[in-house]
Design a protein that fits this description.
Layout (H helix, E strand, L loop, with lengths): L9 H10 L1 H26 L1 E12 L2 H16 L4 E12 L7 E13 L1
Length: about 110
Amino acid sequence: MTRGRRITSRRSWRSSAAKCGPQTARIGGAFALTLIVQAAGTAIAQEAVWEPRRLDAQGPTEAEACRQARIAASDEARAHLGLNIKDCACRLTTGAPEDEGFTCRLDFEVLVRK
């Protein structure tokens, strides 16, 4: 004696699979739509180029100066298609006590349409 669900014949298994057909077609259609949207996004990206940019920012600490530079770069990149941060190099700024801190130079690229 077996417990639980009864094993069915192949014929009934096929008929239950046939009932799932329209649902599977809907999932396939949604997947195809996703692929079309992704292909359109790829086409837009293929019509764009990466332009190098450089930005300087100051802050009391190295981390804060680099953070300010990244924020400014992301603000600038909002008008474009993408942002690629390459490097953030910082140096200590000396001079008057109120001017002391760090200056960071951020090298980045933005993706712009041709």
